[in-house]
Amino acid sequence: MKENRRLNARWRLSDMSMKRRLLLVFIIIIILPLSVISLISYNSYSRSIQENTVLYSRNMIGQMMERVDDYIEDMKRISSIPAYIDDIKLNLVRSNQYHEQRQMVVGKDGSNTFPNDFDLQLSIQRGIEGNIAFINNIKRGANSVYIFDQYGNGYYSSKDGAVRLDITDSYELWQDKVATTHGEALLFSTQEYRSNLKSTRYAFTIVRKILDRSLSPIGLIAVDANISVIEDQVVELDKVTRGTSLIIDEQGDVIYDSGRKMLATNASSNPVVLKAKGSSGSFYDTVDGKRQLYIYSTSPLTKWKVIIRIPVKELTKEADVTRNVTLLATLFIIGVALLASIFLSFAFTKPMKKMVELMRRVQAGDLSVKFKVKHRDEIGQLGNQFNRMLSRIQHLIDDIYQIESQKKEAEMQALQSQINPHFVYNTLETIRMTAELNDDTDAADMISILGKMLRYSIGGKIHDEVPLRDEIEHVIHYVQLLNYRYPNRFELHLDIPEPLMKYAIIRLLFQPIVENAVYHGLDDLKLTMNIWMEAEVTPRVTRMTIRDDGCGMDEETLEALNQSLQAASARRREGNGGIGLRNVHERIRLRYGSAYGMKVFSREGAGTEVVIELPPETKPVMLKGSPEDHGGNSH
């Protein structure tokens, strides 16, 4: 029982060793694809042969029908020749007049008393049949040419001397069909007839009226075309396609078939004919247990439909040979591949085991391991990537450590600027009350504003988000204090869209920038310094602009400042405990990412502009109370 369990575990995929698993995978990867490829190749080759056969056969049918159509067109032209030969028309008129006179003289007993004019009849016959012989020699295959007057008297010529014995019945059929025409040629399908030479023959016929100059009918011409004309074309077609052919007209009458067993019969009820719908196409059918391919196409001129039957076995004969060769080659390749897979499975195992051992050490926290790459194969590439991965992990750890250090340093810089809030609030309140008792309202207002600023500055964490409105109010309070110190020397202009007032922003972004503008841009020669704060939203960023009309800075100083903003290691404290431009820039990048931050533009004597770019979409912060809207006002 235990042995059976061990055996099952040995061949269970999840419990297999790497060697067995690789061997199994190689077997599956080699045998299945090769087998499938061989099968697909055989089927694809067979299908390609059949498709090419269909296309080629259709082209052959088209070419054959073009030749037959050209032949029939020539026969139609031949049938129109009597209309241009005056001798034929004159003698037909003479024949019609003679037989009309004979019909007018009929006795009471039905006998014709009009005397026979044998000389006239002989003259008419020679005049017509002499021209018929000429017409019959124009085109090969024109077996017999018949010309009839209006009373059914026939004149004919035949190359081999064989003419129809049923000429009277044939004339009545032809006359009935062309009665409603106006001189155009009609094509009659293959008919079987007995000749005067006691032989059975087949022919298709072109029939048309013969008209005089006034377009009145004076006779009828019928041109029998020997079926051998089509037979030659079909034999050539069957030889190329290795099949058999059937030609039928629109009524299903058989024009020709390869076995000549269905000539002059109607095949409209034949199952194959019923399936050959439309003007062209192909389909498969089984006859006597053998699969057959049928290809058919229709002549646009005669509407005759050619149906070719090709045994599928004939089509796949070459594909079967290819299949057998492919099968032998596949078996040989599988054998070689199996031997190679056994060798490769053992070759892969050793470095993989080493890789697993190193991964376990990494899992235990040892990032100093390194895979020794000996070869440039896939295992070597995997080892290189493993080493690069460890190096990248180490770098990421260092970067995270550095970012956390930067965050702590930024927070420490903010904390260093803070003092005990209760002490500050209580002391300022005592000073304010003393000022009010002494009727010093300016001092009381200054102390009140300073208290608000200190409460905002130290009332929360440095990375907390507040509404933009609160940041604007903090700047307004700062400018108010400046104007107490420097009476009416600073004017603050705000152009902030109302929707932006509710959006979140980190604390203490603008006041340090305004402070920097005041202390570095104040020009003693100017009585008033203007500071503008503007904001706009684009699809990419929310852009805040703070600009002044102070003294500005030269290009060298500006370039050095912008470079220091981009270097994380260039941070330093500015002033006595204040938060400088670099600190603001780094807090923006730490909060929102390296795509955002601050850039300074300035021109000496023309002022300075600080552009802050923040994410375009931030969550709105719920405002406490209903602060007064300061957008668009001046202070």
UniProtKB/TrEMBL annotation:
Source species, domain of life:
Bacteria
How this chain sits in the membrane, per its record, is: Multi-pass membrane protein
Q: From the Swiss-Prot or TrEMBL record, state where the protein is found.
A: Cell membrane
TM stretches of this protein = 21-42, 327-349
Gene Ontology molecular functions: ATP binding; phosphorelay sensor kinase activity
- The HAMP domain is annotated at 346-398
Task: Give the enzyme's EC designation.
Answer: 2.7.13.3
User: Histidine kinase domain location, by residue?
Assistant: 419-618
This chain belongs to which protein, by name? histidine kinase
Native source organism of the sequence = Paenibacillus dendrobii
